[in-house]
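Loading example: each entry is read as two labelled lines plus one structure line.
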Amino acid sequence: MPSDDLRAQTLDHQSPSDLEGIPHTGEAVRSDGHLVEPQAKDFEHAKAAPRDPYWYKHAVFYEVLVRAFHDSDCNGTGDLTGLTQKLDYLQWLGVDCLWLPPFYASPLRDGGYDISDYRAVLPEFGTVEDFVVLLDEAHKRGIRVITDLVMNHTSDQHPWFQESRRDPDGPYGDYYVWSDKDTGYADARIIFVDTEGSNWTYDPVRGQFYWHRFFSHQPDLNYENPAVGDAMIDVLRFWLDLGIDGFRLDAVPYLFEQEGTNCENLPRTHEFLKRCRKVVDDEYPDRVLLAEANQWPADVVEYFGDAAVGGDEAHMAFHFPLMPRIFMAVRRESRFPISEILAQTPTIPSGCQWGIFLRNHDELTLEMVTDEERDYMYSEYVKDPRMRANIGIRRRLAPLLDNDRNQLELFTALLLSLPGSPVLYYGDEIGMGDNIWLGDRDSVRTPMQWTPDRNAGFSRCDPGRIYLPVIMDPVYGYQAVNVEAQSTSSQSLLNWTRRMIQVRREHPAFGLGDFTELGCSNPSVLAYLRKYTDDGNDLVICVNNMSRFPQPVELDLSEYQDGVPVELTGGVRFPPIGELPYLLTLPGHGFYWFNIELPTPDVTRDQYRC
Amino acid sequence: MTNTAADLIADISDSLAAVLPEQRWFAGKDRPIRAVLPVRATDLAGSDPRLIHAVVEVDQGESYRDRYQLMLGVRSDLPEFLGHAWVAACGDHAVYQAVHDPELTAVLLDLMARGVEVDGLGFATEPGVTLDTEQRSRPVGAEQSNTSLVYGQTYILKLFRKLAAGRSPDLELHRALTAVGCKHIAALLGSIEGALGADPVTYGMMSEFLRSAAEGWAMATASVRDLLADNQVIEGAPGHAQPNDPADAGGDFASEARRLGHAVATVHTDLATALGVSVASRGYLDALAAGMQRRLHRVVSQVAELAPHADVLRAAFDEVRDVDAPVPLQRIHGDLHLGQVLRTVSRWVLIDFEGEPMIPLADRIAPASALRDVAGMLRSFDYAAHHVPLGDADPEIHAAAALAWTTRNQEAFCDGYAQVAADPRKDAALLRAFELDKAIYEVSYEHANRPAWLPIPLAAVARLTS
């Protein structure tokens, strides 16, 4: 960011005017210079969701942008109350947990990840009270809610930063990483290579450089200062007291800096996460921490903490490298891109779970692939340079797959059956499209398509007022693709997706089971066993054809001889497993989910024998 | 049922003479059997069922008699699932092929795990290996010259059928590669060895079973199929006469070909480290060229289509005599193609170091240029590209696409190879001679067996000599 932008800011930005009349940080200043911040006790608290300490291990997550889902007050922007109004839909779809990207007060220069007040809701989304209502209504429907928390940095509009630059000797003077020189931590890479030239930016107000791993308008907090850690723990408590079910901790690898390192994954960063986890474990049972660490699985595993105690840092972490490899595997008609990354994925502590996804609000991230694989992904999935963003591809699932229903189903089946909790991205359940003419990553953030009516039923506002235009092209436009039409068609992608989520819910093996890849000689077929034995015996076998052509496969299932494979979506019983390899044929991009019914030992006969 | 194993084999020799020609692994199908003679027979287990290990000689009226290893089971009551394995009746007992009987094959695993010798049959594990004897076995699909048993999903026991005097190169090279820590082979776990007369003989070898592996051939042809399917779409569009570039195809195989080249070069380097390298003498190169010329001479006389290329081919083989750069000689795989490599989740693995089955053992174990293996793989890419049926595709576009695929993957293979060892393309004359020699062998084979395939090696000959 050019520094003249910062020069324009003056001290009275301490309380951004759009929070006037709403409780917010810095409404008043104590005599010692500390800012007064809103407290949880000032608000109602939501009733908790039903108890389940491991709910996140078998949950289906649904990422929804508050701005994009439903507009309750006709101002062209989705809001918390609009989302609350659509909870019945989400319950009908069968999702277990909503993941909301940040809805905090923010100047919105990075989609809300530039937080200017951790304790206030962005006014156009509503209020803290609206959020408590959302939590309460969601919990009533058995749906949990987590949100992003950006701990690494704030917006430069945050009162903490404004105080820090104004008064280097005040209580916030040491809240950020300041330096007289811009040469420190030279080994740290620049993440947003498209826009940033350095990780240091000069602040003319304070006359020093400040450190930032992301955009220059997002100064990194200084975790060397114990007061910063304490302040962030208090932010956690604020939302946990209101009833939130957990946090996706954004950009966690970067909390601490250390000269001579790449400033990622440092031991003290892990120490701080352990401290956050202890607060959750001691004070807020059933709440989760999900780490966003876009790193190789072997490094990400560190964020689960000590395996001996079942994990003592994050409960969950995203598995980033898996996603691009699902795309590669299908395009190459070879299971090996997936097999290879899963074979390289270490086992995780017993209390932990991966989060897996096909698409999210960011670009399809290609940081976790080799250069060669990245070139391949660009050449396969990026028909137009506008589809690229940073190191990734900004497209939705359906257009990435040429709107091919067979592939959409195969990808979704993989997402719901590979090890980890699946995270769906809003709109992908109806096969929404994208708009690559929109800037940055907005192409995949257009309004949810509810009906064929004006503004896709997202808002009753004047269409000119809408925050982003709805998709209108003939294939993916809201008149062709919307919830209303698809919910009444039994053959729609929406009903198919809903059915698959139901099936997944009926079998604990999907969420809790072990994962074993089943060998087969056909390189285009990926087959695996999900096996859960803790509570009864649940065996699920998933067989996926990565090829567009029909394929045969022989699976060695002799361990389950005399077992009967029962196809899970229709309940059809397949021939029993014999001594010879089990032969299946799959249509192009086809897949099967089977439950294996094992023969029950004849107990009565044994009883009579003695 | 008290007769000795040797007596029993003698008793059923007529039945064996009837059953042997039905076995895939029996090499003498083209000549009538005069007699099946026991060479040795050993009881390995039990009385009912009983397991007999036997070696028989088959007299087919020639001076040399092939020897075969048999595993026979004897039961008083043959269960239905073994009915297909029936060989003979002997008194009131049934004699059958024991490889189909998990109860008896378990005996082999057990003997190996215990490391015992029974009547000159040495069952042994490799150093540091402990076998789990709980695994049940089943024979794997049709094999040409051996019978393999997979135990559980863990081990694979290859039983050699036609026995050659001398230790099997497969066993020998696996041991040598294991000793230098080669990562691109399946781990060797155990062996069954013995002696016939004065010669050592290998009866079987046990290896790690790579349950998640897929054959290179299947992967390569999946890639070709993807490319050609895209071409059919393009052909349908008006005004298109250009095939797709395989580099742009989704199913591109080049990154795999590159990794495969890397793996093959690593195995070659490991073989050189383990068993040494020498430099070919002038006399060796002369003999090599002469051998190539002999084959050419023979095939030209059989296949008229080869005649137009004969002069250029002779000249190409003569160039072998004049190769200036030193030609290293070492132990090689000997029969390398895409069917002899497996892709596991983490790496490419080379299997079956037996060498070309039709060649005498002494020639199979003689040091050779590693370029022969490279040439074998390059030819295999060409075959894979042409293996996928034409359908209603335009033959010209199909041919152009197949050639583009072949070239791209051959180059990628050589690139990967050159990351580890000398770039095979630097020895162009020798590599080309090996490729042509292989292609002429293919011409001969296809001419005799699969005339429809003859155009593949013929086109390669034309291309390589143009």
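Chain B touches chain A at residues 81, 136, 138, 153, 210-215, 218-219, 222-223, 225-226, 229, 248, 250-252, 255-256, 343, 345-346 (CB under 8 Å).
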